[in-house]
Design goal:
With about 150 residues, this protein is mainly alpha-helical. The protein has eight helices and two strands. The chain has a two-stranded antiparallel ribbon. Helix 7 packs across helix 8.
């Protein structure tokens, strides 16, 4: 499940609008730090995706290879498409990913899990805020205080 390892702290709009060429460098390799264009992000601000986890990178590389080879996608095409090869909504993407496992998820499920995982791993609230790209620490606290281990 490429999106599970990739999605992490991304917002629904950001996931739905990722194009292959944003993830790939000039040589066709997946970037470790992927810039997000302001048109893709909440508040029209620049952001970054960190694709450093080895298993996540391997999953993304395999998924992109499938999109480019099997699906004959162009580099400017969206990373995720619906079954009808149209741009996908976050609701459709989550249903496609989680429904086979019988899990109901919302667009914020992964963001909440991401924040809780960071908190449980010992990240500071400021670090979590930066990774989630929250302008206000109060927003971040709303995610972290839902941590059942607290």
């Amino acid at each position: 499940m490429v999106a599970l390892s990739f999605y992490s702290g991304l917002r629904a709009k950001e996931v739905a609008n990722i194009n292959l060429d944003v993830l790939l460098d000039r040589r066709g390799r997946v970037k470790e730090i992927v810039p997000l264009d302001p048109s893709m992000t909440k508040g029209a601000e620049f952001g970054e995706i960190y694709v450093c986890h080895l298993e996540a990178r391997a999953n993304i590389v395999a998924f992109i290879r499938k999109r480019l080879v099997d699906d004959k996608a162009a580099r400017h095409d969206r990373l995720f498409l619906s079954y009808l090869n149209k741009p996908i909504s976050m609701r459709q993407l989550l249903k496609m990913l989680f429904a086979p496992a019988g899990i109901k998820a919302t667009s914020h499920s992964s963001r909440r899990s991401f924040a809780i995982s960071l908190d449980q791993g010992g990240a500071s609230i400021k670090e979590i805020q930066a990774l989630m790209r929250h302008g206000n620490i109060t927003s971040t606290m709303g995610y972290v205080t839902t941590n059942p281990a607290r």
